[in-house]
Amino acid sequence: DEQGLEPEQAIVCVDIWALDLALPAALGFRVHLVARPGTPEHEKRAVRSTAFGSVSSELGGLLEQLDIIG
User: At residue 70, does pLDDT exceed 90?
Assistant: First the structure.
């Protein structure tokens, strides 16, 4: 609200779905999961099932989502 942005204009990027991405996704934010080697498949599927969710195995995947690199 302070920045005058709608949730879909911002992105939350972390490495744990349940603790950090589930609530922002439910609120309509874009979410990006940086998967670790041990990240469970159900977390990756949960992120991909959201309207604005994406997953990568490294932080560079976030840059692709933001169209900074491609």
Answer: no
